Structures are given as C-alpha cells and as structure tokens.
Amino acid sequence: MARLSPTHTTVLCLAISATSVLAQTPLSFTPLNDLGPGLYLDQFQGGLYPNGSNEVPPAHAAEGLARALAIRPLNTLGEPDDDGKYVLISIGMSNTTQEFCSGITGACSSYSFMGQAAVHQAVDHTSLFVVDGAKGGKPAADWDSPNDPDYDRIVNELLTPNGLSEQQVQAAWVKVANPGPTVSLPDANADAYRLVRQMGDISRALKVRYPNLQQLFFSSRIYAGYATTTLNPEPYAYESGLAVKWLIEAQIDQMNGGADDSLAGDLDYSSGVAPWLAWGPYLWADGLTPRSDGLIWEQADFSNDGTHPSVFGREKVGTMLMDFMLNSAFTQSWFLSRPPGDYNNDGAVDAADYVVWRSGQGGTFSADHYNLWRANFGLSDASGSAAVSSARVNLLAPEPAAPALILLGIAGSFVVPLRLRNKCRLRSDVSNTMGRRLLLLPSGGARKVVAVVAEYGPMASRR
Fold it and tell me: Which domains, ranges and CATH numbers included, belong to the chain?
C-alpha cells in the first residue's frame, strides 16, 4: 500500500476535522427495531417484520432455513458439484460497496465486510466466493431490470474471467437508494413507496440473472442526520427502512395466500419469480441517541457530505454485516466452514448426518456423499480447524475500464482486531476524492490472489 506524505496526512486530518463540525439534525425518530408495534407519523407501524415484531414469522423462517440448506457448490452450468462454488454478491450504490469492501490499493480494507471475512477462521474459505457487484453512482433504477448494463459488467469483469457464472450466485446483499428524493411520508408519492416498487423489480431482476439465487437480504440506509447535501438526507434514510419492511411483508403476505402487492408486485418464491427475501442487518440509529442494542452514529462515522460513511462508518457496517452472516440461522449453513459430511450443519459429522443423507438419497445426496460421511465420521469444527486456518477465501471485486492486475501474497487466515478509533491515523484509502476498489481474485498459486482495481469518482457525487 502506498504511504501518505505528511502533506497528504494533513489534508486528510483536516477533512476528518471538517466532519466533526457537522451539526446533527434532531430527529427523535425511533429505530424500527425499537418502535415495535408503535407508529411512525401516527400511522406506520414499526418492527422489522409484520405486527411490530423483529422476528421472522415461523412459516417464512422455515422457508428461509430450507433455502439456506439448498445453497451448495455448483459448477458453472448450475449443476451440483462438490468441487464447485457458490457466490454471495453485493448489489447497490457507493455506500454499499464502501461498506462491503472499501478497497483501493490491492485488497479490501480489513475493516470492511470482505476484509473481515477474508481472515476469519470460521468463514468457508473453500466453496464460498464473495463478489462485490455494487458500484458507486448506481441508484436503485440501475438494478431494476435484468437488462440493466451493470449485470453484464458483473459477468464480464468478475464472473466469467475467473471461471464463474451467474448460475453459481446463490445469495445476495442489497442496499439501494434514490438520489435527491423530495417527497417524504405520508405523501402518496413518497420516495419510500417508489423504493418498494424498485426493490420488487430488483428482486425479480436478480432471479432472472441468477436463476439459482436462494436468498436475498436487504438493508436500508444508515443515519443521515449529519447530511450537508440533498443527495439522500433525512427523513428519506429512515423511511427507506419502512420500504424494506413493506417489501418483505409483501412477500410474506403473498405466500400466506394474499394478493400480489400493488407496489412490490409478484414475489412468489415457489414459482421461481423471486428469491426468498429477508432483512440483513438493520443499520439505522438516531445519531447519538443509543439504540436498544447500543448502536449510535457519530459525526466521525461520516465523510464531509454527512452521507457517505468514513473509515469508521464503513467499519461499523462491515462489522454488523459480518456479525449477521456469522450468527444468522439463515446463513450459517453456507457462510461458515463445516467438516465434510456434516449434512445438518451442526459442526460435527455424526449419526444425525446419516439420517439427513438417507432422507435425501437419490436426490440431494448420492452414494458418494455416504462415503464422504463415513470417511469423516467423528470430525468436528475443532478437529478440522487446521484445514480452515490454512484455507483461502475467494473474494471478487469490479475491474476498471483499464484494469490493473497485481499478484499479492497472503498469509494463512487469522483474526485481525478492528482498528482503533483515532481520527487522524489515516491511510491512503480514506480520502473523500480518492478512488476505489479492488478485491481478491483466485490465481493459480496456493497462496496468491489477483487484485483488480476499479475507479471511484468523488464520494460527494456518489451514494
């Protein structure tokens, strides 16, 4: 990584100092997860899921668990293959890619989601590929049709050159917004309603492009009370959470026998028109007012425009997404490393896995899976930890128009503590005008990856 000159360091510290004088807009909004059955604007119920609850309804949860277990290694034709891969992809705007990877000079920044996943021993570093498909300057309207060019970009610059295909994408994290919204709730033309329609279209577009997509996790915007521009200020950031809530509820209602939602449209996962939808991490808190779980958003968490996250804000979201993937029952079966033959994903190869194998024999499982179970009987996460620690996670990010490919050596996986919150201890990946991005791509060497750099414009012009 290039070192900053003293002049650059001074400039960056001044930029951080500028964010410290941003004035917090007093909102007194209650985060949706704390609002529960209470009402926003005396008419819009809180909670992440129906009836003011933060819990996934039982029937929807059962489907989500089944979808998680259906995620498995596939070859490029989408056929089951123990030597194949499955892909987790990000879709969205500048904030999305900054939080998902935040790479500039050779790899995802270690504080980002992908940076943390790359060194975490519990993550599946064998079959899982993580692809940062999100890109700066790409609002919701750039993802709502399967013919949108960014889907071709992902194929041409990320998947195909690295031996992967759209058939292998099986899980996605989506975070989208619209630039310059002007109409808020409760107006019938509010941006939140527009987002519901767009995210419904995005859900269907993703299923067309990625026919084996099983799970789609949505997050809404982070706090925008420090915003100094009209790019996406409050209350639109807060109300984007209601849009995600309504989208997911629309699928739940439809699968319970209700009609297609007038905004979200057809979200029937049984017919294959859409994947299963659920919340990823809910990111909004009212500035310095602690959420029930302690989450706050400080001025230092934002860049100069009060909308894009600073290094600290990116780390915060990256950590929340990482915690979600590590601990959610809907992701553990495919995100975490499991011993071969652990068919019920409990971390041990035992008699319970034989029962799972027998129930799926002739369909999901074959005689080869029985032989694998038998050969590894008694193995657990602990006994298999050596293999995990020496394995390599495969991470992908976009190329630039004129890509620069760099071979990087990486050591075995290990856990790196999160960076200390020192405002002026910055590196070259902090500047608000510097460009972005690269990630790890597999190469031929056992401990090598290929870094692919892509360009970023000024953050102030991005979402």
Answer: 6-337+398-461 (3.40.50.1110)
